Amino acid sequence: MSVAWSDWRQFPDLHSGMPFVAASGPGVFEVRHVTNGEQVAFATSANVASSLATLITPPASRLRSIFARKRIAHRPIDLEYRACMTVSLSEARAEMDRLNGLRRAYFQRRRAAGA
Predict the structure, then answer these.
(1) Does 42 map to a domain?
(2) Can you tell me the distance from the alpha carbon of 57 to that of 47, in angstroms, rounded to the nearest whole number?
(3) Residue 65: is it exposed, middle or buried by C-beta count within 10 angstroms (0-12/13-18/19+)?
(4) Which domain holds residue 37?
(5) How far is Cα 33 from Cα 36, in angstroms, rounded to an integer?
(6) pLDDT tens digits, residue range 80-104?
(7) Element (H or E) spanning 31, and its range?
């Protein structure tokens, strides 16, 4: 399975009217903070563009906020994202599992080295 990640892109300012650039369809996405590289979100989705857009939309008001999806606490201008598009959601989940395995192995090696 050949995997290609997009370049890191900044989220558009919600008030600027700039279009949101992300592919529609299944895949894996990652969101990080621009200044410190902290991972803010990492997930699979049946529609990556829609999922990324819901992360930065303004919170719902009143009763709707109870049922609304969790939003990211950072300002969109401070975040950037990248995506790995796949053919199916099951392939996206397999890729996410593979990446999580690589991360676990990295941190185990780092811990063993005493870093």
Answers:
(1) yes
(2) 16
(3) exposed
(4) 9-112
(5) 6
(6) 999 999 999 999 999 999 988 988 8
(7) strand 27-33
Whether 110 and 102 have beta carbons less than 8 Å apart is answered as no
Q: Residues of the chain with pLDDT > 90: what percent?
A: 34
Alpha helices in the chain (DSSP H): 48-56, 64-67, 89-112
In a domain, 30, yes or no: yes
Task: Look at residue 107 in the predicted model and tell me its pLDDT.
Answer: 85
Strand partners, 9: 81
CATH number (domain holding residue 85): 3.40.1440
Number of Cβ within a 10 Å radius of residue 97:
11
Q: Does a structural domain hold residue 97?
A: yes
Longest Cα pair distance anywhere in the chain, in angstroms? 50
Within a domain: residue 3? no
Give the tens place of pLDDT for each residue, 5-36. 899 998 877 677 676 777 889 999 999 999 89
Distance (Å, whole) CA 33 – CA 95: 22
Report how many domains make up the chain: 1
Q: What is the CA radius of gyration of the chain?
A: 16
